[in-house]
Amino acid sequence: MYALEVNNLKKTYRNGVQALKGVSLNVREGDFFALLGPNGAGKSTLIGIVSSLVNSSSGETLVFGASVQKQRSLAMSYIGLVPQEINFNQFEKPFEIVVNQAGYYGIPRATAIERAEKYLRQLHLWDKAFTQSRNLSGGMKRRLMIARAMVNEPRLLILDEPTAGVDIEIRRSMWEFIEGINESGTTVILTTHYLEEAEQLCRNIAIIDQGRIVENTDIKSLLATLDIETFVLDTRESLERAPVVDGMEIRLRDERTLEASLPKQKSLNTLFAALDDQGVHVLSMRNKANRLEELFLGMVEKNAERAAREAVE
Amino acid sequence: MNARIHWVGYKTIVRKEITRILRIWGQTIVPPAITMSLYFIIFGELIGRRIGQMDGFSYMEYIVPGLVIMSVITNSYGNMVSSFFGAKFGKHIEELLISPLPNWIILAGYVTGAVTRGLLVGAVVLLVSLLFTHLPVVNVLVSLSVLLLTAVVFALAGMVNAIFAQKFDDIAIIPTFVLAPLTYLGGVFYSIDLLPEFWQKVSVFNPILYMVNGFRFGILGVSDVGLTQTYSVILIAAALLFGGCIWLLHKGVGMRT
């Protein structure tokens, strides 16, 4: 059974903006699924329709077989949502927020209290459980929304940019928590702008742009399509011009930094050997961009070109 | 299974609402008690002595039921509109919208919260009035049922306002320009028998007249309108508003895009 089935979903807002132009998508039960796309691509509209906050214009959305449009209550009982914007009452305490959310799912108060403590502890928020939530830091507020989404122990957890604006240490602890949730059987759908996050955590991916799915595959297959990878090299010597290496493109970024673009079939050893021959010694090296980021940008660019061509025709 | 989820969900909304009312008691309970005490002192004691009797009761006794109903109306309406619009404005209404709870449970929970505040303030005002006068309470059942139904009607009306409101100004317009005039012209301070015939005919289109007089009948045993008319108006208003609220929530007006 699919955790989420989306069939030919369309959404046109009252102002005429066509946010979704026939999106179809399946997410398998137990998957860790990334939904990526540039700003305004339709990600939040899609998540809004799945979580019943946005009414679709046409099409069907099924959560574990229950139609969001026709069996809203059943479909919603399977979902936990961490929205992009802070949406809890900032005058309430984290403990109250989480316990009340459990109540909305029909969880008896005694169980709700136990679960609230469990998830607030797991997300390192227990020491703040009884302080006003408006006094929490940005990262704490995001973790509180995760605890709130987990209190009904959903079968499908949807995270809409959960780590936006969160420092790297907290981001990593959130990743660990979410990975643990997924390992215990919960299907996770993640939207993020940190593409290394998607690459590290997710198994399958859909890229949405201008209201259409432009790619829907597993991350490994997608990365395998990457032809060229670009590295940034820091050199010991000060350079006046970029060295020339056969079959590779090397640019001088500044006098001690090179950018080298290698086709996938060329090995790094070839590059280092060629640089060594020319008296250039590499002190350190890093990827210019995340691999997924390169693919993502390429796809979005291609899609924009196609849309422009269609508009002209 | 569903009944249990609905019951727990309903209790959660009610508990949250009552906690809110009690947490901000300085805004919810105290101001109406002070305002109504001033009404009792100025209109009941000072001006009332010069007015003399009305329908066989002192002016103070005569205005108490109307002032209690006025407090119930403004507080049940005000609680609903501020709480629900606040939840919409702060986006935490989404906590409920993504839950499995049906719209009628969400509505019932918020109405119960608003009615609780209306009745709580009504009880405080009634207690304050006992410092100034004695009330016979002719029919307890009529008094309580009119009070409760009035609170329900204005809680539902507050929900309609909150659903359509897009900014804080929108939740102040109806209480200021509709509720206050209707309440003051609804026979709180006078019997409509005192009005010229034309204005008596106009007054019967004011639903608040029936609520004020229904409660006055329960407390003092006098009324400008019949009890059947009172219950008919209140029940029809409650049914129409309930149906309207459910339809608006189902459509997601102002909440689901």
From TrEMBL, chain A:
One of its GO terms (molecular function) is ATP binding. Keywords: ATP-binding, Nucleotide-binding, Transport. Residues 4-235 form the ABC transporter domain. PROSITE patterns: ABC_TRANSPORTER_1, ABC_TRANSPORTER_2. Gene3D superfamilies: P-loop containing nucleotide triphosphate hydrolases. The keyword Cytoplasm does not apply. It comes from the Bacteria. This is ABC transporter ATP-binding protein. It comes from Elongatibacter sediminis.
UniProtKB/TrEMBL annotation, chain B:
The chain crosses the membrane at residues 21-42, 62-85, 105-132, 138-164, 171-192, 230-249. Residues 23-252 form the ABC transmembrane type-2 domain. Its main location: membrane. GO terms for molecular function: ABC-type transporter activity. It holds the Pfam family ABC2_membrane. One of its GO terms (cellular component) is ATP-binding cassette (ABC) transporter complex. InterPro entries: ABC-2_transport_permease, ABC2_TM, ABC2_TM_bact-type, ABC_2_transport. It is a multi-pass membrane protein. Keywords: Cell membrane, Membrane, Transmembrane, Transmembrane helix, Transport. It is found in: Cell inner membrane; Membrane. Belongs to the ABC-2 integral membrane protein family. PANTHER family: INNER MEMBRANE TRANSPORT PERMEASE YADH, INNER MEMBRANE TRANSPORT PERMEASE YADH-RELATED. This is Transport permease protein.
